[in-house]
Write a structure and sequence with these properties.
With 302 residues, the chain is of the alpha/beta class. Helix content is 38%, strand content 22%. It is globular.
Amino acid sequence: MENASSNFDPQVLARISSLKITAINMVDGILTGQHRSRHKGASVEFAEYKDYSPGDEIRHIDWKVAGKTDKYHVKQFEQSTNLKCTILLDSSGSMAYKSPFEKEESKINYACNLVAALSYLFLKQFDAVGLTLFNDAVVQHIPPRSKASHLQHILHGLSTLSAKGVTQVENVLSGLAERLQGRGMLILVSDFLTHDQDIHKSLKLLRSRGLEVILFHVLHPDEINLPFDGDTIFESLEDDPTVGLDPIDIREEYQKAIQEKIDQLKKISNGLGVDYVFMDTSIPLQQALSYYLLKRKSLIKL
């Protein structure tokens, strides 16, 4: 469990603020100029109180409480919808990769911004969204909620994560399949650099339970092209041994293996009715996400 004092860590707060600004700017930028209908079919349930401030609707003031305490409290309501989305974020060691050649963000930062943007988008539509961080097991789980303030809980989870450990996607998916409700959505964000061999079985189980599944496959260009030259020492970010070699000797074979991995995931996804989205971190995130959302308009209620 997170230490309560971490809520006041200046670095955590700065990270939360940065993620929130990025998410808002990205999503609002994508949605600009698109006509979106009012969300239909939602009901509202009382969620919590907040102190009254100018601009709040007077009709939501709890007058009974005001009469007893001489303080004005406003009732906040949570939208209840049919859609509950859980976002799974791979926080294993390999996600921490950052190119030694360029001053750019790591894969995990790219993925965190993606998760923040998706979370903000769902909440903006009054849908419920939650976050699960994992490596070889679930590290942290934030259940789906639909109230706007829930974004802070998700951003806090993203801001305090540490990319470490090994990846075991199948174990995590199999465990979650028993807990997640049908007719919901599951989004998996990972580099899929894992020794697991049977993701097909796990995805099939999720689909059989009525879950809609989307895979975001996040890779750095270095991991796709192996652009290094000369004798190079490769240190594993997970549990593989350190290897010294000349990348030229294996580049062609390596690139072929990576492409086969991508093609395999794409084929498995297509066969199960799962959305597969390849994300190259050299492509600006807003551009990549906008392209996907335009292809899949059900995530944007037009």
